[in-house]
């Protein structure tokens, strides 16, 4: 029987089971043999990592061809303008090509969000803001590169959702087991259109 786990990956943890570069790995939090992350989350990012031992499900979650949406809370330096948000929605030109259309909207700091360890650096004279960003692709360090390209460097990045799954109720380092998705569930999360 296949398994599906949801982990709230803490900041500083490498998104693999083999330790590297002095970082903690997924093995420090999940002692379940045979499961692997369905997609990656940068070491300096936090939040939801979906793990499974089902290769086809792993592909359906991680492969950009399937366009499964992923939601991020992004704390940025500066205040997003209407023009910056529109650029994020329309797609941003990066060195490796233009990003797909996205959802991007300003938001208040996420309610109940745990403090980051270590805390972000704050500059007194520059405000910080939050953006709720939803993507359907996964270029390397894409969110950070997108916000930087529109003049809003990322200070903190939390993935709160992957398709139908979210981190509600999971503290950093905690995981839970979920039922496998019903047929057609993931396709629903890939078929919704992105409007502004």
Could you characterize what this model shows?
- The chain folds into two domains: 90 residues, Alpha-Beta Plaits (2-Layer Sandwich), CATH 3.30.70; 94 residues, Alpha-L RNA-binding motif (Alpha-Beta Plaits).
- Helices cover 16% and strands 30% of the residues.
- The longest helix has 9 residues.
- 31% of the residues are buried.
- The mean pLDDT is 91.
Give the full name of the CATH homologous superfamily of the largest domain.
Answer: Alpha-L RNA-binding motif
Number of helices: 4
Q: State the low-pLDDT regions, or none.
A: none
Helix content: 10-25%
Shape estimate: globular
Q: Average pLDDT across residues?
A: 91
Quick tags:
4 helices; Alpha-Beta Plaits; nine-stranded mixed β-sheet; two-stranded parallel ribbon; alpha+beta; 2 domains; 16% helix; 196 residues
Brief sketch in words of this structure:
With 196 residues, the protein is of the alpha+beta class.
How does the SSE layout of this entry go?
Layout: E1 4-9, E2 13-14, E3 24-25, E4 36-37, E5 46-52, H1 55-62, E6 70-77, H2 82-90, E7 93-94, E8 97-98, E9 103-107, E10 128-135, H3 142-149, E11 154-162, E12 165-166, E13 175-178, H4 185-191
Parallel strand pairs: 2-3, 5-11
Antiparallel strand pairs: 1-5, 1-13, 4-5, 6-10, 6-11, 7-8, 9-10, 11-12
């Amino acid at each position: 029987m296949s398994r599906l786990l949801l982990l709230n990956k803490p900041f500083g943890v490498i998104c693999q089971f083999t330790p590297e570069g002095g970082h903690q790995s997924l093995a420090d939090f999940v002692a379940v043999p045979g499961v692997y992350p369905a997609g990656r989350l940068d070491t300096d990012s936090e939040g939801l990592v979906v793990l499974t031992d089902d290769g086809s499900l792993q592909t359906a979650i991680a492969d950009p061809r399937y366009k499964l949406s992923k939601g991020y809370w992004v704390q940025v330096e500066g205040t997003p303008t209407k023009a910056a948000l529109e650029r994020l929605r329309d797609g941003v030109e990066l060195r490796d090509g233009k990003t797909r259309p996205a959802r991007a909207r300003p938001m208040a700091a996420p309610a109940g969000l745990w403090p980051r360890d270590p805390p972000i650096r704050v500059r007194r004279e520059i405000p910080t803001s939050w953006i709720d960003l939803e993507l359907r692709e996964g270029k390397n360090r894409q969110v950070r590169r997108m916000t930087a390209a529109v003049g809003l460097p990322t200070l903190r990045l939390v993935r709160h959702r992957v398709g139908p799954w979210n981190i509600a109720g999971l503290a950093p380092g905690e995981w839970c087991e979920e039922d496998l998705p019903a047929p057609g569930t993931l396709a629903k999360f890939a078929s919704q259109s992105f409007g502004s």
